[in-house]
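Retro notes (design track)

What went well: tokenization of the new backbones is finally stable.
What didn't: we kept losing track of which sequence belonged to which structure.
Fix going forward: every design gets posted as structure first, then sequence, in one message. First example under the new rule, 669 residues:
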């Protein structure tokens, strides 16, 4: 299996650190930076809105102040009478003089109910002879007193108009009193000092087109103000505009809102410029802290990576190299010494692997030794079997020859019987016939003796084969016992792999309990679990191979046992054949003696012809019986020869399997 650096444990741990540590830290930092920035922006916007509301409130306060002065002077019976009598001197001496007496009053206008100006101050064109804006007269007549901003020839001004009546406001009004205050830089400075921010007023009405601002360089946007003012005039109300302006290295939050006059029409824009000192400092501090946090996070990640490299990655590399050597068949390779001395999970895993490999190495050595002994035993057994096979083949040939001799003897005995029946035909033929029978009897006796000797040799060979087979059976039993011990060791290896797998699972559980700090170890535990599964699979394959060999050994043991029984049976039958041949030999010897006596005493033939005939018949019966036994022994010998041939074939197969087992074990050193 090829190694992919992108899928290495180091890469995975670095990705885990980035995902688990760096990403959350960056995410939290970005979240808090964004949240605080948004909060600061919201607070800045709220503070700017509050400042704008306060500035609008100051405009209302200025208008209320002018209204209070106006109402105070318009509720005056003498003033009402002077207007009714057109006493301009009294009015100028008592009312118009308020411009010089009352602070923050720039002009005073007195007119009758028709709008004709009786007196006025400061030369405002809108009030020179009459009140040019007839809406003022209509508003006063219809709704009463009012105050508000009004564009004039000298600029936007706060005006307050009130009906002139008596102190109790019960008598009919004889005229209109108007007090006014210009919205000048002094007023803007007062509003700015009260609110605590820069305040400016933009208008394009009257002669004072442009900005009205306090002393100092107020941050402003002329183009935006002009566009917003035109939009406000078009919509009769307009909308506000807020923006951040950088000026002289400082940030200002600028909010421009439309301002309505006394008639409800837009007369200008009120601009609030609030310096963003705190938010700028907080933003700079957040940026610095974010940079420091990022550097600290990178240093922490680097430190964690170094620790993981030294404590986990490097040991795993050494263990991986050790496992590669083991997988390549070098079972004698020593496990990493540093990892064996460790007392943690890596040390435990390394020790377990070392113990497992050492046990497997001992098993392989045992298999090699057992297979060598078994191969030697099977070679000896094969040689003995071949010898037994050759001996049985000779026995079969001898038994076939003996069967032929028995057939000839049986035929000779029949001829003797026929000759005895013709004794009456010629006494002279008795001697010749007796001589011929004597020769055949000698031949039969010789064949019987040879058959008996062959049977004796066969019995000895079968005994030797039986002894060799019993030795093979004992050696095969020992081999079977070794295979059972091998299977027990393989099962023990599987149990160790299972226990290692359970340990890896427990480590995964402990890692999951440890939370974020245990995820790196969970990856290591997962790799250990995979190694345990691979060890278990390898042990399973060894178990299957040893089980297959054990089955073949059991089959060979069974067949050898069967062959041993068949050899024992053949030995018994050969011994029976030997006894039969002994009886045949005795019978033939006895018959030969009798024939010799017949040859010596032919004169007694006639008298003993019946006895000879009976003896011939008995000899024929014995010969037939002997021929049947010889055929039976021949069939048994053929069966034994076939059994030995099968044993030889099975031993060849067993020897081949033992050789394959030795080759498989030889790959592990």
């Amino acid at each position: 299996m090829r190694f992919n650096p992108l899928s290495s444990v180091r890469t995975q741990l670095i990705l885990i650190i980035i995902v688990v540590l760096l990403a959350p830290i960056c995410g939290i930092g970005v979240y808090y930076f964004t949240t605080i920035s948004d909060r600061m922006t919201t607070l800045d916007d709220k503070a700017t809105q509050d400042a704008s509301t306060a500035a609008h409130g100051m405009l209302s306060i200025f208008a209320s102040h002018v209204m209070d002065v106006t109402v105070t002077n318009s509720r005056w019976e003498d003033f009402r009478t002077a207007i009714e009598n057109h006493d301009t001197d009294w009015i100028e001496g008592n009312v118009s003089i308020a411009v010089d007496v009352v602070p923050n009053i720039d002009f005073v206008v007195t007119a009758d109910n028709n709008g004709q100006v009786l007196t006025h101050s400061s030369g405002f064109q809108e009030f020179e002879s009459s009140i040019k804006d007839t809406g003022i007269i209509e508003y006063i007549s219809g709704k009463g007193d009012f105050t508000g901003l009004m564009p004039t020839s000298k600029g936007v001004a706060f005006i307050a108009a009130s009906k002139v009546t008596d102190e109790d406001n019960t008598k009919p009004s004889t005229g209109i009193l108007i007090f006014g205050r210009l919205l000048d830089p002094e007023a803007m400075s007062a509003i700015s000092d009260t609110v605590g921010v820069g305040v400016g007023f933009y208008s394009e009405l009257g002669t004072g087109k442009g900005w009205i601002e306090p002393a100092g360089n107020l941050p402003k946007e002329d183009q935006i103000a002009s566009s917003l003012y035109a939009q406000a005039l078009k919509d009769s109300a307009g909308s506000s505009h807020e923006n951040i302006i950088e000026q002289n290295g400082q940030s200002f939050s600028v909010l421009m809102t439309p301002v309505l006059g006394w008639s409800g029409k837009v007369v200008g824009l009120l601009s609030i410029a609030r310096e963003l000192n705190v938010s700028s400092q907080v933003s700079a501090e957040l940026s610095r802290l974010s940079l420091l946090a990022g550097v600290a996070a990178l240093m922490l990640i680097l430190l964690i990576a170094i620790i993981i490299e030294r404590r986990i990655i490097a040991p795993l590399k050494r263990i991986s190299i050790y496992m590669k050597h083991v997988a390549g068949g070098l079972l004698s390779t020593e496990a990493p010494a540093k990892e064996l001395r460790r007392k943690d999970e890596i040390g435990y895993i390394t020790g377990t692997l070392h113990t497992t490999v050492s046990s497997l190495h001992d098993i392989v050595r045992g298999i090699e030794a057992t297979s060598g002994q078994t191969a030697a035993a099977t070679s000896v057994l094969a040689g003995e079997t071949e010898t037994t096979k050759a001996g049985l083949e000779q026995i079969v040939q001898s038994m076939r020859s003996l069967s032929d001799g028995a057939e000839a003897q049986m035929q000779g005995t029949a001829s003797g019987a026929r000759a005895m029946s013709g004794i009456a035909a010629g006494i002279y033929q008795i001697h010749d016939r007796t001589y011929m029978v004597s020769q055949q009897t000698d031949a039969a006796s010789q064949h019987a003796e040879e058959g008996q000797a062959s049977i004796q040799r066969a019995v000895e060979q079968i005994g030797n084969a039986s002894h060799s087979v019993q030795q093979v059976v004992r050696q095969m039993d020992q081999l079977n016992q070794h295979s059972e011990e091998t299977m027990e060791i393989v099962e023990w290896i599987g149990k160790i792999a299972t226990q290692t797998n359970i340990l890896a699972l427990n480590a995964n559980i402990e890692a999951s309990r440890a939370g974020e700090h245990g995820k790196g170890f969970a990856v290591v535990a997962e790799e250990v679990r995979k190694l345990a599964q691979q060890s278990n699979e390898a042990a399973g394959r060894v178990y299957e191979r040893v089980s297959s060999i054990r089955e073949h050994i059991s089959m060979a043991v069974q067949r050898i046992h069967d062959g041993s029984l068949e050899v024992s049976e053949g030995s018994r039958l050969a011994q029976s054949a030997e006894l039969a041949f002994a009886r045949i030999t005795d019978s033939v010897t006895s018959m030969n003696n009798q024939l010799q006596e017949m040859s010596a005493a032919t004169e007694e033939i006639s008298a003993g012809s019946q006895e000879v005939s009976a003896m011939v018949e008995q000899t024929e019966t014995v010969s037939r019986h002997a021929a049947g036994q010889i055929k039976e022994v021949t069939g048994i010998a053929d069966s034994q020869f076939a059994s030995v041939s099968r044993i030889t074939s099975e031993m060849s197969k067993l020897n081949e399997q033992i050789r394959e087992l030795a080759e498989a074990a030889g790959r592990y050193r």
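Added context from the reviewer: The mean pLDDT is 76.
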